[in-house]
């Protein structure tokens, strides 16, 4: 029996537009489980990023509940949300949003230094270890502009997990990467998940989706399908791809 880490109930999100309202998410209900690698797929404009932002406290839903650790993110104060985003959640985006005038090491360590629970030597040690895991130790003093897109994304992943988040959110983390860098980033995410990291990732990329043990499909702001999968195993990638492809076809992807 898996533990629920986050749950959405009747989640709605509308935007004011041209004097009216556009409804993007309509009554989304689902639970995320601890230790899972959950993927959200769906057509462009279906509301994937909007859902990810509402679930992670980056944006606030218009109605409904997002329960995390006994609190509702929809009604939580801005200060409470900011703290949660800092201490409990990690974020990875398609555009890495690294700070251009900080070195890779500094980009990773800064959110750790801002976390008052850890001493600076503990942060430094964890940053060094993560850089090793992400194979970017040799370029630790480089600026983001001096490294490749794949290296920047590996740095962004290390930054996202420096405070050991309970839940890692990723929106198209491989969207700007070539094939080789995509594989490296996916291997890192798989490794993190295998060591217990809960992940929620939005993706268009079939190869990224194959890493999940649960895929949710969203259409017009509603979750219309769910595919549970065994944990990722590279030896079974072909048959997994066939299964996921067939399921996505049934969702009219
Ligand atoms: N601030 C906003 N104001 C008005 N409409 C918005 C706003 N943000 C998003 N939308 C609309 O909401 C819909 C869903 O957007 P969202 O970014 O969640 O889609 P997505 O599924 O992530 O798409 P993609 O795969 O292209 O990233 C889109 O039609 C978008 O135009
Ligand atoms: Mg999006």
Can you describe what's shown?
- The longest helix has 16 residues, at 179-194.
- The chain starts with a strand and ends with a helix.
- The relative contact order is 0.17.
- It has eight helices and ten strands.
- The strands form two sheets. A six-stranded mixed β-sheet has the order 6-7-8-3-9-10, sandwiched between helices. A four-stranded antiparallel β-sheet has the order 2-1-4-5, covered by helices on one side.
- 35% of the residues lie in helices and 27% in strands.
- The chain has a domain at 1-81 and 198-253: Rossmann fold, CATH 3.40.50.
- The mean pLDDT is 95.
- The protein has helices at residues 48-55, 78-87, 104-113, 120-133, 149-161, 179-194, 206-209, 237-250; strands spanning 4-17, 20-33, 37-41, 63-68, 71-72, 89-93, 167-171, 198-202, 214-219, 222-228.
- The protein has 253 residues and is of the alpha/beta class.
- Residues 15, 17, 22, 24, 42, 44-50 line the site of adenosine-5'-triphosphate.
- Adenosine-5'-triphosphate binds at residues 15, 17, 22, 24, 42, 44-50.
Concise structural overview:
The protein has 253 residues and is an alpha/beta fold. Helix content is 35%, strand content 27%. Magnesium ion (MG) binds next to helix 1.
């Amino acid at each position: 029996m898996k533990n629920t880490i986050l749950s959405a109930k009747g989640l709605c999100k509308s935007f004011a537009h041209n004097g009216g309202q556009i409804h993007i998410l309509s009554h989304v209900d689902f639970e995320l489980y601890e230790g899972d690698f959950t993927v959200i797929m769906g057509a462009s404009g279906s509301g994937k990023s909007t859902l990810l932002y509402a679930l992670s406290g980056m944006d606030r839903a218009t109605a409904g509940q997002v329960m995390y650790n006994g609190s509702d993110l929809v009604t939580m104060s801005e200060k409470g949300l900011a703290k949660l985003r800092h201490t409990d959640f990690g974020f990875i985006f398609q555009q890495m949003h690294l700070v251009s005038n900080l070195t890779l090491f500094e980009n990773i360590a800064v959110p750790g230094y801002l976390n008052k629970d850890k001493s600076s030597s503990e942060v430094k040690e964890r940053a060094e270890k993560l850089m090793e895991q992400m194979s970017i130790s040799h370029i630790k003093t480089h600026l983001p502009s001096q490294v490749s897109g794949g290296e920047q994304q590996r740095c962004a992943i290390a930054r996202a997990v420096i405070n050991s988040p309970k839940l890692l959110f990723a929106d198209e983390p491989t969207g700007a990467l070539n094939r080789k860098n995509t594989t490296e980033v996916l291997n890192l995410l798989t490794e993190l998940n295998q060591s217990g990291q809960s992940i929620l990732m939005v993706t268009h990329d079939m190869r990224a989706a194959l890493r999940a043990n649960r895929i949710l499909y969203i259409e017009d702001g509603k979750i219309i399908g769910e595919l549970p999968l065994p944990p990722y195993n590279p030896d079974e990638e072909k048959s997994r791809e066939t299964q996921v492809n067939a399921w996505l076809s049934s969702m009219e992807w």
